[in-house]
Design a protein that fits this description.
This protein has 79 residues and is mainly alpha-helical. 41% of the residues lie in helices and 0% in strands. It has one domain. It contains three helices and no strands. This is DUF3820 family protein. InterPro entries: QSregVF_b (IPR024530).
Length: 79
């Protein structure tokens, strides 16, 4: 695992399947566990799904919260 992978979990969307378009960090545990049983896809998406499954399985999902993009409050014009 590379540290950058944690940021990818909260920014990369699932590219296919029932949860297409959902952030990888927001995929339900049962879906991640299904991949763990049946096999993760090849490449980066499989690596990220495996990492997220491990994080979810160990109850560590809260560690990703500080990495999530939060909308900034509008800046006030100062004159």
């Amino acid at each position: 695992m590379k540290p950058e992978d944690l940021l990818l979990l909260v920014t990369r969307e699932m590219p296919f399947g029932k949860y297409q378009g959902r952030l990888i960090a927001d995929l339900p545990g049962h879906y991640l566990n299904w991949f763990a049983r049946e096999g993760f896809p090849a490449g980066e998406i499989g690596r990220l799904l495996a990492l997220m499954q491990e994080i979810d399985h160990n109850g560590l999902s809260a560690l990703l919260e500080p990495l999530r993009q939060r909308p900034r409050a509008p800046r006030k014009n100062r004159r």
